[in-house]
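INFO batch 0412 | record 1 of 1 | parsing
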Amino acid sequence: MSTVNKAVAFFKSSLSLCFLSDCIFCCSGVMALLNLLGFYIFRHKNQL
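INFO prediction complete | emitting tokens
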């Protein structure tokens, strides 16, 4: 459960960071990281 909480906190901080900086490359990089994180959590949940 702590991993999910960390993921949510990471998502919120990344989202606010993305809104603060109107840099397209930054936003696309953040979204790519979030996609990788979501994929990892999805696979981890399937293994349980």
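INFO post-check: The mean pLDDT is 77.
INFO record closed
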